[in-house]
């Protein structure tokens, strides 16, 4: 896997103070994507064992309450294996920290896909490691300039899903945020 950047103190991509990892590479190529420099799977920097260790250490800082994984496309075939192992490590070490993941895939499409094809089993497992799952490709025609739908989405078709509640209720439940 390659990655675009790591933000050690991030307040833009989830609730509260967090750390963020922008992975490199995305096949979706949404018109108007705000992060087109992350499309090329050969761009960015190599994700090494040392990089992972550094990110895990940063995530463990006491002021970090949330870990965000975005891109690029974290669930692309090229990235999914490393993202899976990263989230597994983070959840084991820091079960109380919230994991946010941004993807162009739809949760139902992953969940209902045959698990023996195209890394779908890993994608489904990654969902189980996340607390907040922000899904859907950016649609320029549905751009939400003032973030009326939600402060963490770019277009109104995208959803901020509360994964724990959704599994509990067996239907998609949107995240309401800390009140
Ligand atoms: S899925 Fe995200 S990163 Fe990929 S093109 Fe669409 S908006 Fe950009």
Structure description:
There is one protein chain. The chain has 179 residues and is an alpha/beta fold. It has one domain: Aldolase class I (TIM Barrel, Alpha-Beta Barrel). It contains five helices and seven strands. Strands 3-1-2-4-5-6-7 form a seven-stranded mixed β-sheet. Helix 2 (77-93) runs parallel beside helix 4 (120-129). The N and C termini lie far apart (37 Å). The mean pLDDT is 94. The structure holds iron/sulfur cluster. Iron/sulfur cluster (SF4) binds next to loops.
Q: Helix proportion of residues, in percent? A: 25-40%
Measured distance between first and last alpha carbons = 37 Å
Measured on Cα atoms, how large is the radius of gyration? Answer: 15 Å
Helical run tally: 5
- Mean pLDDT figure: 94
The overall number of domains is 1
Q: What is the strand arrangement across the widest sheet?
A: 3-1-2-4-5-6-7
The CATH class, by name, is Alpha Beta
In CATH terms, the superfamily is: Aldolase class I
Proportion of strand residues: 15-25%
Could you spell the SSE succession in H and E letters? Answer: EEEHEHEHHEEH
Bound molecules: iron/sulfur cluster
CATH architecture: Alpha-Beta Barrel
What sort of overall outline do the alpha carbons produce when their principal axes are compared? Answer: globular
Structural class designation: alpha/beta
Quick gist of this model?
Helices cover 28% and strands 20% of the residues. By secondary structure, it is an alpha/beta fold.
